[in-house]
Design a protein that fits this description.
The protein is of the alpha/beta class and about 210 residues long. The chain is built from nine helices and ten strands. The strands form two sheets. The chain has an eight-stranded mixed sheet, sandwiched between helices. The chain has a two-stranded antiparallel sheet with strand order 6-7.
Length: about 210
């Protein structure tokens, strides 16, 4: 059993918490006000704590906070995240007029790269940021096999994340290791396709995948 802390309790965070708890992991959701946390998570044995405590006590930390504010939030947790594996699934974008992603916050870079620079003692791995959140924990719902991309400098960290993806139902053939953390700028840029897909088809499950 692995201790997993998830920063952020929105749709992405709670969806991952449910699935990872069901897979047998010990999960803590890091929220701003844990005493006000409501019963938004259906899986049992999920704890709530403030984000600093969550980052300090978990073996693996997953960032699901809004990407445009993630860097400031997590840079303030540098001590707590030292030596930890940080899985970043967020995309840092500026909204268009309709509230959907319109532009990248870090053109020529990526949120994952910015996090790795701000947290030099932390092993950052980027993944699961190229799909609707429901696909993260149920990739089998798509008629075409989806792809989960991996970007990160530490091979052991990526191996650990590959194991977590397996717990979420991802088959080895669906996981593509792109290389070091700089490759995250490619997958983060894919988010610019997402609003066009959503405007045409609504919030139907999809993933931006590699076809072979």
């Amino acid at each position: 059993m692995t201790s997993i802390g998830i920063l952020g309790a929105g749709r992405v965070g709670t969806n991952l918490a449910d699935a990872l708890s069901a897979a047998g992991h010990r999960v803590t959701l890091g929220v701003r006000n844990p005493e006000e946390a409501t019963a938004t998570v259906t899986a049992p044995h999920i704890a709530f704590a403030d984000q600093r405590t969550t980052a300090r006590t978990a073996d693996i930390v997953i960032n699901t906070t809004p990407g445009d504010t993630s860097l400031d939030r997590l840079a303030g947790l540098r001590t707590e995240l030292s030596g930890k594996l940080l899985v970043d699934v967020s995309n840092a974008t500026r909204d268009a007029d309709d509230g959907l992603p319109g532009d990248l916050c870090y053109p020529g870079s990526s949120l994952a790269e910015q996090l790795q620079t701000a947290l030099p003692e932390t092993h950052v791995v980027k993944t699961l940021n190229t799909m609707l959140f429901t696909v993260m924990t149920a990739p089998e719902i798509l008629t075409t096999p989806p792809t989960a991309y991996l970007s990160g400098d530490d091979q052991n960290a990526k191996k650990t994340v590959t194991g977590l993806l397996g717990d979420l139902g991802w088959q080895p053939a669906w996981i593509e290791d792109l290389g070091d953390i700089t490759t995250a700028r490619a997958t983060e840029a894919m988010v610019l396709m997402v609003p066009h897909i959503l405007r045409r088809h609504g919030f139907k499950p999809f993933a931006v995948s590699l076809a072979r």
